[in-house]
Amino acid sequence: MILSRLPLLIGLALALPATSLAAEFTAKELADARALQARILTLDSHLDTPSNFERPDFDIHKDYSGNGISQVDLPRMQRGLLDGGFWVVYTGQGDRQPATLVADRDAGLMRLLAIHTTVAANRDTFELARTAADAARIKAAGKRVVYISMENASPLEQDPTLLSYYHRAGLSMLSITHTKNNGFGDSGTDKAEWNGLSPAGRALVENATRMGIVIDQSHAADAVFDDLVKLLPVPFVLSHTSAKAVYDHPRNIDDARLRQLAAKGGVIQVNAYGGYLIDTHASAERKAAENALEQGLGGWRGMTMASGVELAAGMARLDHEHPVTKATEDDYFQHLEHILNVVGPDHVGIGMDWDGGGGLVGHDDITNLPRITAWLLRKGYTEQQIANIWGGNVLRVMEQVQAHAKAQAGS
């Protein structure tokens, strides 16, 4: 496992039975939420589920509830009324040596292939989306929506011209970094190297914008945000980020930048990764024990789905041996409400980091998504505002970015 990725923290929510949920909703509130959610388009902007496509025993049609590896599969998408979202080409940040950059290039291409292979093998239930309009059409056809995004542009560092290939293969969204700096820019959780975007990063962002690819600032440093505000002629997004005013973590964003994002027409998709919502008080001993548990099961990439049950049991044991504080729905709703109050419902979305560390006590997979809708209804948001939060806002940014690229190509 790459500890900065912390995929084992999925187990922080999965390992123990749910205690209390944040809000007590009535049966009618939940029924109304489900009915609304069935009508609207429900998308999550950051699904790390493709990491499981490379496991030989993963079957997206199988319900993996209780499995410490998986939070998203078709049965749970159906129960949670998740219509789809952005499936991530993720590559961990290596040491940036030439051989590592080649390995990153190949890893990204293999993950892209895994997404296409999965969609092709399940064409009756999933379909690749390339434009904002595709999502509603795919939902109407009774299928799940698959947009492709890239988290960490490291696979492009060895050969930036590969971006055009990714675009032709359906890439719709691109982030700059992950938890460490790369050759394109600074990470929010690493020491400043470029003071924002590097020259190569600026060129990458400009090329992506010309192709109609949405830029994602999540994980990148505040200085990268500032560069994007000045550089981009179109809005951008934060695909899975929370509020620094609620929990002061370098991975989160402050209110002043939130307002700049909204002024530019951008959208922040609120994250549910516990370590960015609250201080989990995870000790060095806890982290070492998680690493030992994972390595004993073959390493994160080497695990099979069959070992996921043992992973969940092991995490439950660690919860007793090395307790941590776990983020709850209350914590998530505190971030969501703060951001809504700062920028309004036209600039907010949902990107909970499923299969990448996201998850809350009592909300450990996608089956409880209607609870978010129930909370939004209780807060007085209209159906149209909720539809925008659940997908309309991020698709509006995509439409603007693609329209700009088309206009530039025709000028």
TrEMBL record:
<dbReference type="InterPro" id="IPR032466">
    <property type="entry name" value="Metal_Hydrolase"/>
</dbReference>
<keyword id="KW-0732">Signal</keyword>
<dbReference type="Pfam" id="PF01244">
    <property type="entry name" value="Peptidase_M19"/>
</dbReference>
<feature type="signal peptide">
    <location>
        <begin position="1"/>
        <end position="22"/>
    </location>
</feature>
<protein>
    <submittedName>
        <fullName>Peptidase M19</fullName>
    </submittedName>
</protein>
<dbReference type="InterPro" id="IPR008257">
    <property type="entry name" value="Pept_M19"/>
</dbReference>
<dbReference type="GO" id="GO:0006508">
    <property type="term" value="P:proteolysis"/>
</dbReference>
<dbReference type="GO" id="GO:0070573">
    <property type="term" value="F:metallodipeptidase activity"/>
</dbReference>
